[in-house]
Specification:
Length: 136
Amino acid sequence: MKRNATAVWNGSGKEGNGTLSTQSTLLSNAQYSYKSRFEEGVGTNPEELMAAAHAGCFSMKLSFVLGAAGFTPDEIKTDCVITLENGAITKSELTTRAKVPGIDAAKFKECAEDAKANCPVSKAYSMEITLDAALV
């Protein structure tokens, strides 16, 4: 399976602007710029998209890991913060809260750590990845 996206950038790094489009067309010429990346401008940015990818991948992997252990989650909610420092993406911080009937905290933690280590996005990121996982 292959997925793709396209970025088009026009102009200089600080004054220019660009668009991002995805194969699924969920993003279709979504704007991004210096301001949306490094300030609080309108539009998306690569780090936001990385955070969405990691949160989504981790949540789905955790559902599979829980299922293999005999548990079906009612809900898994994961937030992800990507840190950009000195021109490098240095960290991905996952925070997940889940409603999983019948599981104890120790088994849930084990499943969450498995998902963190083995979701495809975690495997692709060569940075520190932290996890704060709790049942709610």
